[in-house]
Amino acid sequence: MNIIEIINSRRNIKSFKSDPINMEQISKWLQAGTMAPNHKMTEPWEVFIIGPETRAKLNHKSDFFNAPAVLAVLSKHGSTEVETVENALATACFVQNFNLAAWAEGVGTFWSSMGNAQKNRDIMGVPAGYDVIGVFGVGYPEEINNPKERTPIQEKIKHLS
């Protein structure tokens, strides 16, 4: 697949096979994430690999759709409000690179925002000065949903004089 096909076919997976994903694969995709643009090379991302004990405490309503691996991606706050926003945006780019690298090899992700709740931050031991960009189930898709309707980009483009 070329990059456009990878982008257009990627989905948020809500049904995973039980086939394991090894840490070497995950590390390779995370390394691809590090090529994300980030202002002043802040590299603000941190990754927590969620083990079974922490996963059970998080008590996600669907247990991340039985994904064989779960991880959290955090973004470090900057020294200014603007840098904190830039760091979060860079970390979102990191996540997208990770998602696309995994998808290119037939592995999907489920992105949950549950990590922002204080209870879940405490369970994961998220330090002050970090935002949780997402908690991700990672695995081989059991099922791939059809894409949801998107607004045509022409409706979102504004031409300035």
From TrEMBL:
InterPro entries: NAD(P)H_nitroreductase, Nitroreductase, Nitroreductase-like. PANTHER family: NAD(P)H NITROREDUCTASE YDJA-RELATED. This is Nitroreductase. It comes from Metabacillus sediminilitoris. Residues 58-140 form the Nitroreductase domain. GO terms for molecular function: oxidoreductase activity. It comes from the Bacteria. It holds the Pfam family Nitroreductase.
